[in-house]
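Issue: ligand-bound run for 5-amino-5-deoxy-1-O-phosphono-D-mannitol - logging full I/O for the record.

Environment: standard queue, default settings, no custom constraints.

Inputs:
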Amino acid sequence: MCGIVGYVGHRPASDLLLEGLSRLEYRGYDSAGIAVVDDSEIEVRKRLGRVAGLIEMLELQPVAGSIGIGHTRWATHGEASDINSHPHRDETGRVVIVHNGVIENYDRLKSELAMSGRGFRSTTDTEVVAQLIGWKLDQLIESGRAADDPETCWDALQAALGELKGTYGLGVLFRDCPGHLWTTRCGSPLVVGVGDQEFFLASDTSPLIGYTRDVVYLDDHDTARLGSDGIEVRHRDAGIRDIPVQTIQDEAVDIELVDCPHYMLKEIYEQPESVRSALRGRLNLDDATAVFGGLNADLAEVRRIDRIVLTACGTSWHAGLVGEYLLEEFARIPTEVEYASELRYRNAPLTDNTMVFAITQSGETADTLAALRECRRKGHKTLAICNTVGSTIAREADGGIYLHAGPEIGVASTKAFTSQVTVLALLALYLGRMRHMSFRAGQSFVEALQGMPELISETLECHDRVRRVAMRYADCENFLYLGRQYNFPVALEGALKLKEISYIHAEGYPAAEMKHGPIALVDRQTPSVFVTPRGGVYEKVISNLEEIKARGGPVIAIAGRDDDRIGQLADEVISVPDVPEFLQPLVTSIPLQLLAYEIALLRGCNVDRPRNLAKSVTVE
Ligand code: M6R
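Outputs:
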């Protein structure tokens, strides 16, 4: 939520900041703004709406300078408006900041600052931070400290941070110390790119691509000063820190749309390759098992696991549900899937040998991070199944498994889901082979996984058929999504995709559970999407489908190839290749992603930037 960029170097800052903001716009697109140090002033340009609008503004009112900060906003405190856009200044104009996060005690701080005579322009929590830093700075100057001494700025900033409660990633400029940019974080991500006599600041690595691959990841309570003399990092408790420069992997580079109209479509079509990447180097054919490099758990520890907790939010939680079926069926380990937002506050009793996996595409989701920290605090081994290399969750977990799906930019998660399911299947194979699974069963599992990228490519051939179905149902205002066993989480995921990008009300249910309430919704205008490929529960799902037909509800079926029976029952059939039941989510989820995409297009919705949403939810 909210994207931050910064630059200190020798190039025109505004061009770099705008380019960086365009790449971070998936984090929020309510408003955008930049501040650039121009001689002894800090020039601010900001406005409601997308980065494109800010670019137009800067064409008319350019700013010169080679140090600056920028922000793209997902509004939390204060409506989306010009005045609430970042950057925000303190009253004197000495301090200008951008902020990602939420200041929980902003109300109290605001009252105190107002009583000391500070006037507020906006209704944001961020302006309170700018005013607080400014107030601390004024006090230091009044006590005789020099405004142009960087140590004064350090002290003003640290004094203000000591009073903040909540989460923040900040970029801070001090007018009287114009050669430097300060940045600090607590609970919100920040990365510093290290170039040749230049530094880049960003909420994630995407704005750095093309400029540098060398990065420094800041930890909570680190504050960094970036200037022509280099980078200096101080930790709140540990003083000056020497932080290693790391190199970003190649996979972080492919973020251009090229010929694709939307990131979501691009990412749907990348799934054969992203699933192939998740499998690469992880199948051991000789032992018919899976191998992982980064679990950081010895064999004895893995063998002792008696319970698994998978914690996540949104789509990643749906992948976790598939994981529950996989782990219980193949590894025979009791598994629970917990909403991270609930687990973090529930004092769930966990056994000593419980292993906790946080599943997350971004590695920055605030609730997932908090749940992981809570479980670590209680002494449990915590591992991450994560896509974003170097993200906070990836760094804080004891170990983990990367998805290697490449950047996912579309707000609606697609390829991350199938990669998460692939990694969870690998995990079930690995843990299963350590326990009860026979060599022969392991071999069949491995062979099935190896075939998946090809079968996903084949599945994508359903796109034309999906487009025709979408045209028939795009005007409906309610949808039901129904599936059983491995396809129940797929039904939930299909409904979420439709909701978030087309704003149609959709509900996912276990198909049999539908009789216990949701069937009351069924009428001729409410399609039911049945995820019903061949498998152990096929006959049962057919009975559920008949129940809907008997009540006049239209049925769209996601079915196996040449399934004549479904052909006669359903109004529409979208067929997918036949695959072993436990891997069906890897194919059945794809027509549902495409259906949501096509319906959203027909309804004129912004597929990659759906209203009210942001790609990574770094607030509670
Ligand atoms: O980055 P994460 O996987 O932790 O994100 C979790 C959810 O916010 C995310 O999956 C969200 O539900 C997606 N927009 C769904 O498409």
